[in-house]
């Protein structure tokens, strides 16, 4: 189990530390926030490979953190002889018996810390010191990676050449490559890890036998004919035989089939599902680390539901999952407590959530929690009409839509304010919670939410009791009736209050589209001013 | 307690014992075999391959390699935070008064071979248990060949290993202790060279290990064995060597040889000629090998050019000090059938002269 991930100088991550959860890690973030990079970095340190190719083959200038590189280039230009940018990905592992071979103090922790672990470094190669010096005279942001070396070693300071067996890793990405053998590199690994050594050997032996039989049966008659007709150079006989070299081992011919359809012929969704099932099968040698990138891709809602319940049921005690996702559904379903939010090269873990809040959202997986997670600031309102009216009030006050300022206005639609506020508090979000008074005194409404509120950070805004129980009476109370009738296009014949209560959404939409603005009820304006800050 | 040390005499098939024990281990036991000299490692690997074939869980490495791989490299930062072992400096030495980092590491960050034992030993405590815990998790058994060659801080590391959960099995011939991992170190002077036997006896009294003595030689003729026993005085309480060599050639045993007869002797018997060092026996034009280089060899016959100490020992029964005694012992016990020592004055020696 990985207890800590440290990344220095790799792509978006300048200096990054993440302490993953024991079992489930959901990595969420906006586009370009570094979700995939994080998964990639973990996989690189665990397997020494990236997309199935070795680190040294794949190494390119874009791996280096641009900030570090530009500082370096500037210093080069100023003749300051700066130290060369480096990449270091360190995985600290649990101090377990079977991992002791990897144990040592060769890591960046201060004070000195001995634990099992591996580190992947991309370091300046001392053999090319003079070439680098020459290059630095005319430095450019594209570092000369030819003068770098890949340095993969354990915390015991021993160079690693092959991925340690204890660190079996399954990587499931949705970018399925249809290779000629029908099985891509990652699946090949998953298959390999999924079989017991004895099973692998048995398959190999049987496959050899089958090939030998081919040579002795069908090919035999062919060979008899050829031998009479043809002669090669030097008159040695030509014969056809099954290739028994390792190049043509069983791995190239054996592929998973689903309902008799070969893996490579099934849909991408199905392929992802097969990989997950294979990678997470429960036996002693199954993968210790499973990484899944955006499982929601290529899957319909129903398939995704099935897939997630499979992930859930297969996840063993000793497996650590890393899932990068864009989907609230995936997050809610697998458990909000596993969430890590990444962005601008840093990550924020979710502080502890009450277990019943986690299961609350698991039961309501359709709720768009990710919006709450990704927004800079959140306004929680009761329903769609509150949302629309608030947006208009905000725009009138500040000349911009809330979204343009990173403020997301969310209807909670019946989800409890308390649960939403708890989640926001765990995410340390700035929140304005706006609710109706429903004829109940403020103190009573405030009491159950008090725990999650914080002055200046998360505040509750409730319409004054004398202004009416819900949004509509509050609007009437705050505005001149004639003006409101004009905005809403409601004639004197209709009872304004009744019309508004009946046509809530229509009311909100007409207010949103009207030329002149309304006078906002005080609690809504307060909320807008608070959230604008 | 399964720790044991086999103290054996020359030619008693000690190394074979390690190989047999190793290959009879259950397949799930992970064993480490440690030796001091390079030739020893090569020979062990060779013999192990022949005898037991591939055994994935047995690894054979040198003592220094062990201290580097499992002590210094992983745990150096516990003494010098942020530092790494960048190499191994076999020849170099720190300045005599060097302190801290420069005591152990040269300017390139390479560890001095002569200080590696001390560094490794200090890291055991500095790592707050992590180091020993790691070794206990990686190995079930550790075999150490030629135990008598370890010195100074190595003995303290050995003490920690004896206290660990690992089963330690050592073999050695205290009487053959002519090499040392750090000849200049003052530490553990009391255990140096042949004094090592006392170290084992102390540990046996504390119940930390069992001493098994094997004093049957397959190599040396009974008369050579008997003579080799006399090289050390009785206070060492070495057991008497028994010989299993029953070969009779007509010239068997230990003989004195006058200078005048040397040429004829060499012509007749073609012995392996041995001397203490390049500085000794300069007045003979023979194809000599130094005592310490002869270690591990078996020869049909040897001819020894004695040092003045050896002469005194023969003529006046004055015992040699431990180091020269060990060297002389190595020289004598190379021979299977005969040992001849060049000396003109016999003194009190009861040994017979060979006369053409």
What does this structure look like?
The complex is a heterodimer of chains A (533) and B (356). In chain A, the strands form 5 sheets. In chain A, strands 1, 2, 6, 7, 8 and 9 form a 6-stranded antiparallel β-sheet that branches. In chain A, strands 10-13-14-3-15-16 form a 6-stranded mixed β-sheet, with helices on both faces. Chain A has a 4-stranded parallel β-sheet with strand order 18-17-19-20, sandwiched between helices. Chain A has helices spanning 35-47, 55-58, 66-77, 129-136, 185-194, 197-216, 218-229, 268-279, 301-314, 328-334, 355-363, 369-374, 384-398, 417-426, 442-446, 471-478, 481-488, 496-502, 504-513, 522-532, and strands spanning 2-10, 13-18, 24-28, 49-50, 53-54, 87-93, 103-104, 115-124, 148-154, 169-172, 257-258, 261-262, 289-293, 320-324, 339-343, 346-349, 377-381, 407-411, 430-435, 458-462. The longest helix of chain A is centred in the middle third of the chain and has 20 residues, at 197-216. In chain A, helix 10 crosses helix 11. By secondary structure, chain A is of the alpha/beta class. The termini of chain B are far apart. Chain B is 35% helix and 19% strand. Chain B has helices at residues 14-23, 38-52, 63-75, 101-104, 113-126, 130-138, 153-163, 196-205, 222-230, 262-269, 308-316, 322-332, and strands at 4-8, 31-35, 58-62, 87-89, 110-112, 141-144, 167-172, 210-214, 216-217, 242-243, 253-257, 272-275, 288-290, 299-304, 335-342. Chain B is α/β, with parallel strands linked by helices and 356 residues long. The A-B interface holds A 97-98, 100-101, 103-106, 110-112, 114-115, 155-158 and B 69-70, 73-78, 81-82, 84-85, 127-128, 130-131, 133-134, 137-138.
